[in-house]
Design a protein that fits this description.
85 residues; F-BAR domain-containing protein; F_BAR_dom; little secondary structure
Length: 85
Amino acid sequence: MQRSHRWKKKKKKKKKKKKKKKKKKKKKKKKKKKKKKKKKKKKKKKKKKKKKKKKKKKKKKKKKKKKKKKKKKKKKKKKKKKKYT
């Protein structure tokens, strides 16, 4: 393969401008103060005594007997037919 006889011009390399990187400001972290935990004293639980419930005796109610009222039957009066003579 033959090379082309034309002189190749050397291309000037363009200098790339370096972009300045903005420095990010670092936020200072606030240190949290550790709170000391107070130890809680355990309280002893008192056992509750169970009270016995007294059973109440139920009083029996006396049933009153209802007196049945007797209905009086009304007697129908028969009308006497008058005989015409």
